[in-house]
Amino acid sequence: MKKNILVTGGAGFIGSNFIRCAFKQPGFKGKIVNLDKLTYAGNPENLAGIQKKYRGRYVFAKGDICDYKTVLALMKKHDISVVAHFAAESHVDRSIFGPKDFIETNINGTFTLLEAARTFWAGRKDVRFHHVSTDEVYGSLGAAGKFKETTPYDPRSPYSASKASSDHLVRAYGHTYGLPVTISNCSNNYGPFHFPEKLIPLVILNALGGKPLPVYGDGLQVRDWLYVEDHCSAIWRIISRGRAGATYNVGGNCEMKNIDVVKGICGALEALAPSAKNPALGGRKYSDLITYVKDRPGHDRRYAIDFSRIKKELGWSPSVDFKTGLRRTVAWYLANEAWVENVKTGAYRSWLKKNYK
Ligand code: NAD
Ligand code: DAU
User: Fold this and answer.
1) What's the CA-to-centroid distance between 80 and ligand 2, angstroms?
2) How many whole angstroms separate alpha carbon 167 and alpha carbon 190?
3) Using a 6 Å cutoff on CB, does residue 135 contact ligand 2?
4) What is the tally of structural domains in the chain?
5) What residues make up the domain containing 71?
6) Residue 23 carries which DSSP code?
7) 135 included as an active-site residue
C-alpha cells in the first residue's frame, strides 16, 4: 500500500502501538503523519526511535483534532488517503469527574475530522476514514450473551456516551455523503506503553512500589482483555480490506473478573520480580496489597465481544492469550524503568514543554 495515513492520537497507548505495527507491514510503503495534541496521555517517548528508523516516512504534528484548518492543511500537504482516528479522551473515571474535554475531543474532534475528510476527498472512493471505538457504547451485559455489531447502543458513562455520539457521526457521514468509513468497537486493551491510570499498568506499578492495589466495589466486574498488538493487527486488516460502511467488533475472547486480573498480575510479578526481593514490600506478598475501595459510579458490570464478523470476513482472531500477554506486559514495565519513571514523576511533561510549544 502506497497510501499516506493520518493517524490521530498516535502518541497515546494504542496509537503508538499501531504506528509501529503499520510500519512493519511488508506491503506498506507510504507515510504516516501523527497528529496529536499531547495531552497528559500523549507521550512522544512512546515512539522513540521511529523518526530515525523510518526516515522521511514519519511526520509528527502537534495539534488538536478540533482545529479544522490544521487538519485540512495536513491532509492536503501530505496527500492523505487514509485516516486512522485514535485521538480521544479515553479514561472512564476522568469522564465522570470532568466530562467537558470528552465532549470536545471525542465528539467535536471527530466531527472536525469528518468535515476535513469530506472536503479534501470530495467524493473519492479510493480513500478510507477508520474510526477506533469501544465496546462500551453497547452498555453493560448480564451474566450471558456477547456484544454483536447489531446490539443496540446503550452508553452509560460520559466517556461511552461521547464515543457513541462519534460513532453515530461517522456512520452518518458514510450514509449521507458516501464517505468511505469503517468503525471498530474493541474491548479492553493491555500491553506496552499503557498509561498507568488504567487498571493493569496501575496495579503493576503500585505493586512494585508496595502501594495498595485498588479494586473497585466487589471486583467481580468482567472485562474482555485483548493484547494491544492484536488490536492493531485487526485495525490494519480493516483499513486494508474491510468493507466501506462496515462496523467490526474486536475482542480478546478473554473474559476475566477484575479481581482475577489483579491476582494474575500479582502472580506474574512474583515470578518475574519476587516480592521477597523487593524492599518496598517489607516482607509482604504482592497479593497482600489488594484493597477493596469504593465502586466507580455507574460501573458497567460485564463486557464481552462477539468478533465472528471480523473473523469470517477478514480472517482475524486474537493471537496472544492472556497469560502470555500479561507476562509480556509485566516484563515490559520491569524492563522500561526510564519510561516508567518519566511517566510516574511527570518528567515527560516538562520535557514536552521544552520541546513542543
Ligand atoms: P490514550 O488516552 O492512551 O491516548 C489518546 C491520545 O490522543 C493521546 O496521545 C492524546 O494526546 C491524544 N489526544 C487527546 N485529545 C486530542 C485532541 N483533541 N487532538 C489530538 N490528539 C488528542 O488512549 P488509548 O487507550 O490509546 O485509546 C485510543 C483510542 O482507542 C480511543 O479512541 C479509545 O476510545 C479507543 N479504545 C481504547 C481502548 C482501550 O482499552 N484503551 C479500547 C477500545 C477502544
Ligand atoms: O472496554 C474498552 C474500554 O476499556 C476503553 O474504551 C477505554 O478507553 C479503556 O479505558 C477501558 O475502560 P475501562 O473502564 O474498562 O478500563 P479501566 O482500566 O479504567 O478499568 C478496568 C476495570 O477495572 C473496570 O471495571 C474498572 C476497574 N478498576 C479500574 C481502576 C483504574 C478497578 O477496579 N480499580 C482501578 O484502580
Assistant:
1) 33
2) 23
3) yes
4) 1
5) 4-195+225-253+299-320
6) H
7) yes
Q: Locate the ligand 2 atom nearest the alpha carbon of residue 133 and give its number.
A: 6
Beta-carbon count within 10 A of 115 CB: 16
- Give me the catalytic one of 136, 167, 230, 300: 136
Tell me if 170 is assigned to some domain. yes
- pTM, 2 dp: 0.98
CATH number at residue 249: 3.40.50.720
Best mutation site among 92, 131, 206 for ligand 2 pocket (most ligand atoms within 8 Å of CB): 92
DSSP β-ladder status, 226-227 and 128-134: unpaired
**Cα separation, 325 vs 299, whole angstroms:** 25
Q: Please confirm, yes or no, whether 288 is among the known catalytic residues.
A: no
Cα torsion angle, 182, 185, 191, 194, sign: positive
Rounded to the nearest angstrom, the distance between the alpha carbon of 88 and the centre of ligand 1 is: 4
Residues lining ligand 1, CB < 6 A?
Answer: 8-9, 11-15, 35-39, 41-42, 64-66, 86-88, 90, 105, 109, 132, 134, 163, 186, 188-189, 195
- Residue 344, domain member (yes or no): no
179 within a domain of the structure (yes/no): yes
Contact by Cβ (8 Å): 188, 261:
no
Q: Which of 41, 38, 160, 37 is nearest to 96 (CA)?
A: 160
**Given the CA of residue 159, which atom of ligand 1 is nearest to it?**
34
Whether 145 is in a domain gets the answer yes
pLDDT in single tens digits along all 357 residues of the chain = 679 999 999 999 999 999 999 999 999 999 999 999 999 999 999 999 999 999 999 999 999 999 999 999 999 999 999 999 999 999 999 999 999 999 999 999 999 999 999 999 999 999 999 999 999 999 999 999 999 999 999 999 999 999 999 999 999 999 999 999 999 999 999 999 999 999 999 999 999 999 999 999 999 999 999 999 999 999 999 999 999 999 999 999 999 999 999 999 999 999 999 999 999 999 999 999 999 999 999 999 999 999 999 999 999 999 999 999 999 999 999 999 999 999 998 887 776 666 665
